[in-house]
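quick one
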Amino acid sequence: MTSAPGPSTLPYTYLGPEGTFTESALLQVPGAAAAPRIPSTNTAAALAKVRAGEALAAMLPIENSIEGGVPATLDAISGGDELRILAEAVVPVSFVLVARPGVSLADVTHVGTHPHAWAQTRDWFQANLPDAVHVPSNSTAAAAYGLLEDRPAYQAAVCASLVAERTGLAVLASGIEDNIGAVTRFVLVGRPGLLPAPTGADKTTLSIPLPEDRPGALMEILEQFASRGVNLSRIESRPTGQFLGHYSFSVDVDGHIGDARVADALRGLHRVSPGLSFLGSYPRADQQPPVVHPYNADQAFAEADAWVKALLGR
Ligand SMILES: O=C(O)C(=O)Cc1ccccc1
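structure w/ 3-phenylpyruvic acid:
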């Protein structure tokens, strides 16, 4: 992963409070662990700090290996003033069930947690507490801290084990995730102007509105990638909110806008869907370079360009 963007006195922000999986993700960004950081209550609050220049960048969950995309993040980064993804981090996610000391499993009727954590522990609750009611919270850590307040609306919370250690809450059960090995992907989002340099193992995130409701419109978009040998690692549709049935495609592709094949695909996309948004090119967390056929390499694009220029006498 690249280092955090340049030296700055501005803090980073993240979906808080302390002890969320999002904070763990931020701590993976070289340079960010030693920098000041402030928690935000939710995605909108985190991005408002970035847009107002009060935070250098915000770490937010974007995709889970079980649940798929995180709509709140996908929608927030593609709407409003332009933002850029600067880095990604992938964090293994394991959950514990915590309660105030003295509370037992039999006392638990309501459980506070983030909707993603609830979705990833469904089977465990079905098997162990089938009647438990979910009380949604802004984050797993917020749910756990809520147990320390007067008269919480739930008796137990699902969170990271780190939060149990920090709060002194009792662990009623651990490793309660339904899918061992599940990971969540997080992105560090800043203002435009900071384009991370290509590393050879990068991703580019785009939001592409379907230009017209007609047969083949999506295929025309996908052709721009296929014909340049650009692999997609995520694609999902999100409603634009304009009218029922109007969708935008949120896409991650292998490669950097500085790679000729990606830049050429972007040119093609701009012709097909001029309203597309470029949300950033940034290093892949797993540092795996893509397989690029020689005819899609930078050199092949440069040679093709030179050939046409020569034919035109330029
Ligand atoms: O609530 C948290 O701790 C978060 O960081 C969001 C989240 C919730 C569940 C799985 C991964 C991330």
